[in-house]
Amino acid sequence: MKMLHIGKPYKEHRGSKTRLCSEIIIGEDKKIFYYEVDNKWADALCDDRSDAFLVSLLQYAMANALDISWQTPVTDRLVYQLRTIFIPVISSKYNKIFSHIHLKGETTTEELSKKEWGVGTGASGGVDSFYSVLSHLDIPEKSQKLTHLLYVSASNHAENEEELRKDFECNKKNIEAIAEDLSLPMIALYTNEAEFFFKGIINWGALRFAGMVYSLQNLFSVYYFSSGYPYVDITFGDGSENFDSLHFDLFTLMTASTRSLNFIGTGGEVSRGRKLMYIASNDVVKKRLFVCNYRSDHNCSACDKCMRTAMQLYGDGLLQEYDQVFDLDTVDKQKKKYTRKMLYRRSVYDEEIVEAIEKRYGLSAVLRLQAFFIRPVYILWQKLKESGWVMRLFYKLEIDYKLYGEAMAESIRYSKGVGKRPSSKE
Ligand SMILES: [Zn+2]
């Protein structure tokens, strides 16, 4: 099997930034993988071991059938867990995407000496993130109390660096404002992981984030990973390319944790609706909630995530208080259509939202009847979508624009990496 080699990690100062770098060698190819932070956080970057690079590149190597070797030792327990648990389980269940690979290199049992006991979580401005933050600000257990926010560049689209950095800087302003409002220090971390994308990476998020946190291992000892799915519904899925591995993030986090850095899943103990209820009355949330999948500087108020969140707030009777983050007119125009969609789609989130709306405002029998007839077509459509030529025709005929309207159609195209229709191009 071909080898991916992780060179000795080193720090590099570049103006106001410091990078943790390693030369990655794959056959004849050499590339620098780096994590970049403001100089202020340079000491937090850990160049004593290769943990971050191993965790960040593991899925890439498995997707490309590459064994991994390294020059600087990796934490003993981390290698043990990845080798004996993560790699065999994931490569057998998801054998269409991942190969069983081998890890070769020295390990260390030495304790990392840390100056600080950092407890962090990711700040994105979204519902899951706000829940993790607000539920760990004021807790009795001292060792678990949140001390830092981490903001990372995590795009799912392999665009050029300039675009990625633009998005990163754009979102950063909102997160900096959140950190300031909550009086927490924030670390912004940019990485060029996009150069190591693989097909389907969008569904393999937990280790990507874990690798970024490992790069700051001199600071972080505990890290809360916001769960997108309730833990009562944990499943390893069907092994297909479209399955979101965050359904079993607790498993992934367990295999990525060591004595020096412990990942804890949070938010999976409650439903999405309960999470939103928990955070919704907070003034920082009202001012700064950012959930959009489409725009990077404001909520478009039309994409599925914007609508889902807005409709949950509507169901809870709180939407009017969110006029700073949503365009309530845009939401209003789509309310009926989206309620019907939730009625026939019946996703894990939909049922809870529909229930809340019904309880507060009631639901029209016409909407229910329409959804009843659309549901079989919807199920058939989900099957057809698995076929490539059907989708090509679907986009070519611009059926999505007719079905969903321009704003939502374009947000869905964006999330799937499909270009806008020719007549929409700016
Ligand atoms: Zn949106």
Structural class: alpha/beta
Envelope shape: globular
Low-confidence stretches: none
Characterize the largest beta sheet: strand count, sense, and whether it forms a barrel.
Answer: 11 strands, mixed
How many helical elements? 15
* Bound ions, cofactors and other small molecules, one mention each: zinc ion
Strand content is 15-25%
Mean pLDDT: 93
SSE blueprint:
Blueprint: E1 2-6, E2 10-14, E3 17-26, E4 29-38, H1 51-63, E5 66-70, E6 74-75, H2 76-93, E7 103-104, E8 107-108, E9 118-122, H3 127-134, E10 148-152, H4 161-181, E11 186-191, H5 206-215, E12 220-226, H6 249-256, E13 262-266, H7 272-280, H8 283-288, H9 304-315, H10 328-345, H11 350-361, H12 365-384, H13 388-396, H14 399-404, H15 406-415
Helix pairs in contact: 1-5, 2-6, 3-7, 9-10, 9-11, 10-11, 10-12
The protein binds zinc ion (ZN).
Overview of this protein structure:
The protein is α/β, with parallel strands linked by helices. The protein has two domains: 2-266, no CATH class; 291-424, no CATH class. The chain is 42% helix and 16% strand. The strands form two sheets. Strands 1, 2, 3, 4, 5, 7, 9, 10, 11, 12 and 13 form an eleven-stranded mixed sheet that branches. Strands 6-8 form a two-stranded parallel sheet. Helix 3 (127-134) packs across helix 7, helix 9 (304-315) packs across helix 10 and helix 10 packs across helix 12. The termini are far apart. The model has no long low-confidence stretch (mean pLDDT 93). Bound molecules: zinc ion (ZN).
